[in-house]
Backbone:
């Protein structure tokens, strides 16, 4: 969760450096634009926090994926902001408009990969549990049918509550 905060602070500092505050306070429209633009620039970091909380809560096995995704998000943010600041092009500031799109896409890919990794891990865990504990029920792993709250073994015909 700390990496998205670092990215957000970096974005705010760069945006503040590039903003002409004399023009911003001139009219209500300029103030509203500055607020909307700041929200747009911070959207990817809010999404990264939501992904981090969701993965931590529901798919703990994929926390490493979120950490790598957050590192990539921070690296891209620093690179994009540095490119805007050091460019001599008059259209370099457009990078600030389009960078959040790429950042949100990166956060989305991070979420998809994290869920995929967590599903693979849970599938492996389920198979390991079946191999270890289902033979203790008195049936082969392939013979167990799960229905409702009981485990039925076709070879013995017995039912045991789960």
Residues:
């Amino acid at each position: 969760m700390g990496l998205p905060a670092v990215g957000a602070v970096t974005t705010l500092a760069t945006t503040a450096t590039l903003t002409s505050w004399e023009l911003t306070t001139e009219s209500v429209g300029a103030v509203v634009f500055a607020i909307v633009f700041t929200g747009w620039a911070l959207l990817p970091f809010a999404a990264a926090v939501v992904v981090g909380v969701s993965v931590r809560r529901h798919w703990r096995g994929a926390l490493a994926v979120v950490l790598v995704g957050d590192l990539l998000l921070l690296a891209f943010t620093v690179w994009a902001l540095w490119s805007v600041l050091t460019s001599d092009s008059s259209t370099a500031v457009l990078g600030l408009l389009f960078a959040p799109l790429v950042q949100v896409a990166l956060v989305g890919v991070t979420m998809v990969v994290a869920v995929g990794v967590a599903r693979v891990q849970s599938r492996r865990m389920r198979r390991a549990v079946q191999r270890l504990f289902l033979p203790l029920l008195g049936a082969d792993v392939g013979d167990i049918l799960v229905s409702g709250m009981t485990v039925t073994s076709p070879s013995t015909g017995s039912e045991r509550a789960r």
Q: What stands out?
A: The mean pLDDT is 79. Strands lie at 145-147, 150-152, 159-161. The longest helix spans residues 94-133.
